[in-house]
């Protein structure tokens, strides 16, 4: 997604699509985070993957680190 397309209108429409009311004082912050997330997604989407790569059959997350 083009980050320049993320504006007040886009965010308000996205909020309406999930039946969410945004307080006017939160709008600038929501726009900022939408742009930040779009930037992160662009980095992930640009990462090259081999077309023959196979996904993992089982996902096992790392254990939570402890202070021990």
Written description of the protein model:
This protein has 68 residues and is mainly alpha-helical. The chain has a domain at 3-46. The chain has helices at 8-17, 27-46. It is extended and about 45 Å long. The mean pLDDT is 91.
- Proportion of β residues? under 5%
Listing every helix as H and every strand as E from the N terminus to the C terminus, the arrangement reads HH
Considering DSSP H and I runs of 4 or more, what fraction of the residues is helical?
Answer: 40-55%
- How many strands, what sense, and barrel or not for the largest sheet? none
The count of DSSP E runs of length 2 or more, i.e. the number of strands, is: 0
Please give the structural blueprint.
Elements: H1 8-17, H2 27-46
Summarize it:
By secondary structure, this protein is mainly alpha-helical. It is built from 2 helices and no strands.
């Amino acid at each position: 997604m083009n980050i320049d397309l993320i504006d007040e209108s886009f965010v308000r429409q996205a909020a309406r699509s999930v039946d969410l009311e945004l307080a006017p004082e939160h709008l600038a912050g929501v726009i900022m985070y939408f742009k930040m997330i779009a930037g992160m997604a662009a980095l992930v989407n640009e990462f090259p993957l081999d077309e023959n790569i196979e996904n993992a059959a089982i996902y096992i997350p790392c254990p939570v680190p402890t202070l021990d």
